[in-house]
Every structure is written in C-alpha cells, then in structure tokens.
Write a structure and sequence with these properties.
single chain; alpha+beta; Hypothetical protein af1432; Beta Polymerase, domain 2; Ubiquitin-like (UB roll); 3 domains; five-stranded mixed beta sheet; three-stranded antiparallel beta sheet; 21 helices; 14 strands; globular
Length: 500
C-alpha cells in the first residue's frame, strides 16, 4: 500500500509546512493519474510515488519530492501548467517542466540522441534538481523494465548505460549509478550478467563467514584503543562494475580484491587515519593498495581511505574507512550537498560551495542567477549545445560522449591540484584544460619528472608539468592528438585566425 507516511518518514527532519506540501502533491498526483495503468497493470500513480520515495531516501527537499510526485501530471495526467503554478508555485512548476521536457526526447539514433543530450545539459545547467528527479524517475522505470515491449527495453537500457548511469556517477550519486548500471547490464547482456552474478554469489558464500569473523576482530582491536561507537557494514561490488573489472583482469576472480569490502564509519577525519593505523599495526597491508581519497578526493566528491589487507586466515579484504558524513556523500553525492535557505515564504536551492568538492580547481564557476552557482563543466557543455549549428552531428555526439560519458582519468599538477579528463587524453588536452594560451604554446611536458612529447597519452595519477615556448603554435596535426572537444575547438579557432 503506497502511503504518504512512507515518504514523509524518509524526509530529513521535515517541518509541518514541508509535510503539508508533499501531502498536497501526493493527493494531487493520485487524482491526476486516477484510472491510468502502467504496462505491468498496476496503477500509474505507483510510478510517481516510487520516484518521490527515491528522492526522499536521497534526503531531497520538499519541493523536489513534490515535483517527483507531480513530474508526469502534465505529460500523462490531466493537469495543466497553470494549475500546477496556482497550486504549487513557480519553483515546482519549473522542476516539473524541466523533467517533462527531458522525457519527451527518446533515444532513436544519433541525431535524436544529440537533441536529447542538448536538452539534458541545458536543463541541468539551469537547476540540477531537474536531473536528480530524472535519475529517480529512470531508476524506477529500470526496476520495472520487464513489462515494457522488448525493442523498447533495449533502447531504454542502452540509454541508461550510456547517459544516465555515467551522469549519476559523475555527480557522485553512486547508490543510484550502481543500480542503474546493473539493471541496464542485466537487460542488455543477460548471459554475461548471470555469469558475473554467479561469481558474486560464490564469492559472498565463500568469504562472508570469514569477513564476519574478521569484523569482530577489528571491532575488538578498535575498542581497546577507545573506538567504541564505530559503525561497520559490508558492501558487495556492483555486477556491472565487477564485469568490467574481470575484463581488465583476464577473468581471474582471484585478482579482484574488492568484491566484498568492509566499511568502517567514524566521527572525524582524524579518527579515519587513527583507525587505519590501528588496522595496519595488526594486519599486514597489500603493497600498492593503500589509497587516500580523503587528502585527494575524486573529482565527483568521493572521500574515503582504502586499504587491502591480509587477514591471517588466507583471505584478502578491502577495508574502506570514512566519516559518517563522507559515507552519506559517497552514496548520494550532489544530493547531499544541496542546502536550502529560507527566502520569504519559500525555500530556494543554494548550490554555492558544494560543487567545489566535485570538480577540478581549474574549472571556473558560472553563475546563472543570484541563487545558484553552476559548475563550469555543466555550464560550458550546455553553452556548447546552444552554439552547435547542426553540422557534423556525428562528430559532435562523439565529442560529448567522450567529454561527459566516458571513463575519466585524474591528472595532478605540480602543485597537487587535480585535473579531470577522459581516458585517452594527451598532454595537449591537459594543457588546454588549464588555459587556452598555455595549450596554444605547448612545446613539451614533464610526466612524473620525465620529458615527453605533446602527443603522449596520459595515465591515471600522472603528475604533469607543461613546458611552453613562444614559437610553438597549433597545426592541423594537433587536432588528431587531442581527445576533448574543448582542445579541438581552441585549436580550430587558432588555425582560423591564422588563416585570416
């Protein structure tokens, strides 16, 4: 039974005003979708209800949860824009309209795909809550995909794997991206999905009893050092993530150490390092497997200490140590950073400082209005969608996919700042990411202290220092050396000016 209490109980310390707003949206949506059915035969209202429930689990604000309940009211219900505006105000109408526009464009080949990406990026540059609602909507649709026509299943699953899951990951909403990946993988490659699932089940059956025994030893060791309020649990690696990792490891399951990982949550950052020290003092760490994502967060905001240790009974276990706050951010990313401020009788999203955790420090922030700071990579890509004149659409699609939806590498400047690039990027891509003038005059670079040519492909974790020369300038050959659309654009602009 879909009750409003299930949603409001998930909300983070809701005021009476917020509960009343969500309840009003619940009642409105129930009436708007009355008599409508999904392919599964269940009432259509269940879909918007589950979407809102996912948003409440993510601790989104009352306006976003309400928009989740209302997101199909105009498209599939009997409501009008004027009606939504009168009943719920401009803010919720804007969110509903944003999600409705994204939902109209379907994945049907390259040209329409590009249009979808354009609207997607423009919409999230205006208000990222639109994207979060869309992700919740897509997640519930993927959970019930079996009831959709088979050819449509394939399109939706492919779109999910190529667009929605990578964007959720990029925004740090790992809990959502992991489930989207697995559901899409199950639909697109059922045989490989089942084979990988068998690996996971076998590993869990084999290692879980050992892990539970190890957890008791860890708790005992930490209690002796005064850590009596820690929280521990374990997480299973995602099926799709493991499938990819097995591909990298030649299908050797014994080379994958993090299928089953122990999480230890503590109060402070100092506690994280203290716990790491205690664990290493008792159990031997595996060389090269200690990662400090607290000092060097991933560009999507993820922070944690990772270490892989020999437990002494023949097992090897990955241990992840983080604060409770880091754990919330690790699961919900952007959603956990959006804060809301009172502004008269309404609350408005304020996204000013939190995005600094998610992106390289070189990226500038572009303001769209007084309330919001939008990260440069979103605003720039949205702007590029407006500037594109419709030519070379296949190339444009590939550029966008390379920039946003491919896997990333993280490069360090000599000062230890992080630059986020697509896999396959060269020294020139890195140089243009820093500044167009630096890119235009790049002569060579030092990678980890060694001189390298400008076409050299960068690897994750490289420390890169650009060496410029006034006489160095772009040539047509440079276009073939770069991966990112930003670098290609700057090179082409320089060559055009030279020609004139």
């Amino acid at each position: 039974m879909a009750t409003i209490k299930e949603i409001t109980d998930l909300m983070d310390l809701p005021s009476k005003e917020n509960v009343d707003l969500v309840t009003k949206a619940y009642n409105f949506a129930e009436k708007a979708h009355e008599g409508q059915k999904r392919f599964s035969g269940e009432p259509y209202f269940i879909h918007v209800y589950e979407t809102a429930k996912i948003l409440a689990e993510m601790k989104m604000d009352a306006a976003t949860i309400s928009a989740g309940l209302l997101h199909d009211s105009i498209e599939d219900g009997v409501a009008t824009e004027e009606c939504i505006k009168t009943e719920f105000g401009d803010e919720i109408l804007f969110l509903v309209n944003g999600v409705t526009k994204l939902g109209k464009v379907k994945y049907r080949g390259a040209e329409r795909h590009i249009e979808s990406l354009k609207k997607f990026l423009v919409a999230i540059a205006q208000d990222l809550r639109v994207l979060i609602i869309k992700l919740a909507d897509r997640l519930h649709n993927m959970r019930t995909l079996e009831f959709v026509r088979e050819d449509k299943q394939q399109r939706i699953a492919l779109e999910t794997l190529q667009i929605y899951a990578p964007l959720a990951y990029r925004l740090g909403i790992r809990k959502v991206s992991r489930e989207l990946e697995d559901l899409a993988f199950k639909n697109l490659n059922p045989k490989e999905y089942e084979e990988t699932l068998k690996f996971v089940k076998a590993k869990k059956e084999q290692d879980l009893p050992k892990l539970e025994k190890f957890v008791k030893s860890v708790k005992k060791a930490l209690a002796l050092e005064g850590f009596t309020t820690i929280k521990t649990d374990y997480r299973l690696k995602g099926i799709y993530s493991l499938h990819r990792k097995l591909g990298e490891k030649g299908q050797d399951i014994d080379k994958v150490y993090d299928i089953l990982a122990l999480r230890v949550c503590v109060e402070t950052v100092a506690d994280c390092y203290a716990v790491l020290g205690i664990i290493h003092g008792i159990w031997r760490p595996l060389p090269g497997r200690i990662k400090d994502y607290i000092a060097f967060p991933k560009p999507n905001g993820y922070q944690s200490l990772h270490t892989t240790i020999f437990t002494g009974d023949g097992s090897i276990v990955e241990v992840q140590i983080r604060t409770n706050e880091m754990h919330q951010k690790a699961e919900y990313g952007i959603a956990s950073h959006i804060v809301y401020k009172e502004n008269g009788s309404t609350k408005k999203a304020e996204t000013v400082n939190w995005f600094k955790y998610f992106l390289p420090k070189f990226i500038n922030f572009a303001k769209t209005n007084e309330e919001k700071d939008i990260p440069g990579w979103v605003a720039e890509l949205a702007e590029s969608t407006r500037d594109n004149n419709g030519e070379d659409k296949e190339d444009y699609l590939e550029d966008l996919k390379a920039d946003v939806f491919s896997h990333r590498i993280f490069i360090f400047t000599p000062k230890g700042e992080v630059v986020d690039l697509p896999v396959g990027s060269s020294i020139l891509d890195y140089a243009y990411m820093i500044h167009s003038d630096i890119g235009n005059h790049t002569n060579s670079a030092k990678i980890n202290g060694k001189i390298a040519a400008i076409k050299t492909e960068l690897k994750n974790g490289d420390i890169v220092e650009i060496i410029t020369k006034e006489s160095s300038k772009p040539s047509t050959k440079w276009i073939e050396m770069v991966k990112t659309s930003m670098a290609k654009r700057h090179i082409k602009e320089f060559l055009e000016k030279e020609k004139k």
